[in-house]
């Protein structure tokens, strides 16, 4: 049962058949007891197991075998607890204890205490559970070798209750003893459960990488042994980690499936927990009606359980929902009630969360004295247990309190403590989880920036703003992290092979979809939908497995102190006549930092984010309209575009003009939705900015050091000048092939066209080419940015493919549609091709913000490369190309000349 469930079930069937054949009631009772254990404990089929336990007990009663009848209660307790029949379980346990004590069955009595402890822990009474487990442990110790086989089970369960009670080091020690003993005894399934237990202790200690790694290992063992309930439990625990990491959509999906699975097998408690977690994810995503619905469903299940602690967990989520919906009084009342429940059960960690919520609600009500009281309770818990998940919320709440009291210096100090604690937790994560971990925590950075400005520290304000921008990308570059799909240990081989197989299957399906002409009129939309769903399922599976592989190999995150943010002084990297203009959103407003070699100035822009978004939407409506009409008809929409771009100029750039005297080059660092805006196309009323400045972009100014280093160029001192790939996407983009061919000829480089333009050739040759040019069809995937890509002959070159290789080029040009668009994640992380190419080693990228014109793009690219070939810097070369397109009336609309942005290094090659 603890190593091979299928073999166990077959053996039980054999026992049952032999017992029936013998006609001996003792044999029948023993076979029934074995079947009951297999179904309830092994497979999680509690109702079926309970039925077998009761049949066995009736036979033992008829045979006047009270000890055997009492022994049957041990497993039966587990089934009754999981079915929520606690009163019956306690009553039968008391009867069994009397019988076993009377007959001196001390080992069996100790085993009974272990399962009784689980029942109390399930009800939230971990203090009683720990007492029972300690008594069982003493009994096993007195029994010597007789109890040795049971020792790891009691340590396993002690680890659970010690964790609930906040005694983390003791919980770790107990879980490690259990794991070692189960492995020594060859109990594979029990060892996986011990690993799951150890993972959850790491989880509450904030060590999410280690927790996830162990949980995925345990899940695989359970799945391989066909134990669906165990798999569902692990998914529940994985969801706990994903909640902390800001992976809310994944939590909703996993918990929805878990709730259905637990309900199907009659596990109300676990189903209620799954729904409670789902509700929290919905709250974080702002889906309040769905969150309330999930909480109501969970309450109906948990009230039947009579579990006060589980109901308090639910009410704490309801408090969070009430606060988000603007009802702090109700939130505070609920939090106080939860605190009383947790305090009564001696549960310090959830108690800390309850005090945190109460303090938040009190601050929202403006009740400073009451908030101070709650924070005092929370501070006491943090000092006693040093739980990382409570450290930075405490400091953040202290900052808000100090600000409300008018003590801005203390508020800033508390903000800095909160940021340090938050980033220490972030730095212990696998790099692809670091950005989403910051989801919902942006206000902390915004307040720190505001306080630094108020106290007269402009450079510190900029440095704090930078800590909230593209930090994961910076980590990849600073520490040269390898995110490729390769096995770094023998146990990774199977996972990597599965990933590569899934990628090949995805490419095969994409090729099939791209090449298949509709055979029916109308087309078979059902078949198309099925194919698209299959592709989405494949992409999700690939993403999940890639993250599993990255977590397994995230040893770099073990020492979080190595990842402390080092402030960059941008002035050191700005040549004469260059200005850095960096934007940062604070609440619903925008700040602009204007940095030149001589000073740092901060401007508070008189515009709301909502207004900027509205104008951006109008701009893209205009651009889309131009895209759908012939070139000669687009001129009529240019005046409309100029009007929109003038409004954006007045809001975003005009206030900066006074700081830009003598400036000829702009280094733009956008924030949020501004990553979609072509600043070179802003209209000042007389001219576009491109007519006055060359322009380049960066995701964050902290990346400036990586744009000025020369080691990438040195790597290519003896390599070919340029590699160009051109692919017409089945003849739909005929100018792409011509473009690649002419650019390669201009530079004396190599052109890989049509059938030679493959992912395999690119990945093989790009590592030795200082300039890489791709002219092809591109697609931005807002739903799955890891699969944004460029279509080549053997499939899509996706962001994931780029992460999987090294492309240390001085310039990569992606002459295709929407290659510069990204999904803007938490921490202003840009998910898409731009991030992947920077991570792979490129120092500058030429990318498009929208769907481009095939014919006009070829001319623009040729002009750009001619200027580059003549020794002009990258930003100036792009400006020359844009000015040439702008000079022609038919291509004067920004749709034609302004789609491309230069990101990264801007000087000569």
List the main descriptive attributes of the protein structure presented here.
single chain, 909 residues, alpha/beta, Rossmann fold, 6-stranded mixed sheet, 5-stranded mixed sheet, 38 helices, 62% helix
Detailed description of the structure:
There is one protein chain. This protein is α/β, with parallel strands linked by helices and 909 residues long. Among the domains are: 387-468, no CATH class; 711-904, 3-Layer(aba) Sandwich (Rossmann fold), CATH 3.40.50.1460. It is built from 38 helices and 16 strands. The protein has a six-stranded mixed β-sheet, sandwiched between helices. A five-stranded mixed β-sheet has the order 3-2-1-4-5. It starts with a helix and ends in a 5-residue tail after the last strand. Mean pLDDT is 92; it is low at 710-719.
Radius of gyration: 32 Å
Q: How many helical stretches? A: 38
Q: What is the percentage of strand-forming residues? A: 5-15%
Mean pLDDT: 92
> What's the total count of β strands?
16
CATH architecture of the domain at 711-904: 3-Layer(aba) Sandwich
Secondary-structure-based class equals alpha/beta
In summary, what is this structure?
This protein has 909 residues and is an alpha/beta fold. It is built from 38 helices and 16 strands.
Walk me through the topology.
Elements lengths: L4 H18 L2 H18 L3 H17 L3 H17 L3 H17 L3 H17 L3 H18 L7 H14 L3 H17 L3 H17 L3 H17 L3 H17 L3 H17 L3 H17 L3 H18 L2 H17 L3 H17 L3 H17 L3 H18 L2 H17 L3 H20 L3 H7 L4 H13 L3 H9 L4 H8 L14 H23 L9 H28 L25 E9 L2 E7 L4 E9 H19 L10 H15 L12 E5 L24 E4 L7 H4 L2 H5 L7 E4 L7 H14 L2 E4 L5 H7 L5 E5 L1 E3 L9 E4 L2 E4 H5 L7 E5 L7 E2 L5 E2 L1 H7 L4 E5 L5 H16 L4 H14 L6 H4 L2 E5 L5
Parallel strand pairs: 1-4, 4-5, 6-7, 6-8, 8-12, 12-15
Antiparallel strand pairs: 1-2, 2-3, 9-10, 10-11, 13-14, 15-16
Helix pairs in contact: 1-2, 2-3, 2-4, 3-4, 4-5, 4-6, 5-6, 6-7, 6-8, 7-8, 8-9, 8-10, 9-10, 10-11, 11-12, 12-13, 12-14, 13-14, 14-15, 14-16, 15-16, 16-17, 16-18, 17-18, 18-19, 18-20, 19-20, 20-21, 21-23, 22-25, 23-24, 26-27, 28-29, 32-36, 36-37
